[in-house]
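Quick question, first post here. What does this chain look like in 3D?
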Amino acid sequence: MTLTLSTTQVLAGLGVLFALFMVWRVGARKARRAAETARAGARVVSLTGKVLFTGAAFVGVQWLVITHPGNPTLLLVVLGVPDLIAAYVLTRALTVTSLDTSRRGGRR
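> Answer (accepted):
Ran it through. Tokens below.
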């Protein structure tokens, strides 16, 4: 059994294969972009949880020391250390050191 195809049929078949390949590439790019967006959103939620937990811990310890007075040095340490930590974190957060965006053309 021999298969004979005209030039038009071969070109049409190659065109269909090319179109399928392009659709697959566009879908892969969209999936990659959606995954990167989801990761960025998860980072924000994770950071928010860490900030709330740490803030609650600081407030709890400060409340205990303030409601049970007796040692002024301990009071100054408990009130001063969170300020130093907050200053460090804010300085790091507001200092741009890198940009988390990918370039066109893939990872290099």
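The radius of gyration is 29 Å.
The chain has two helices and no strands.
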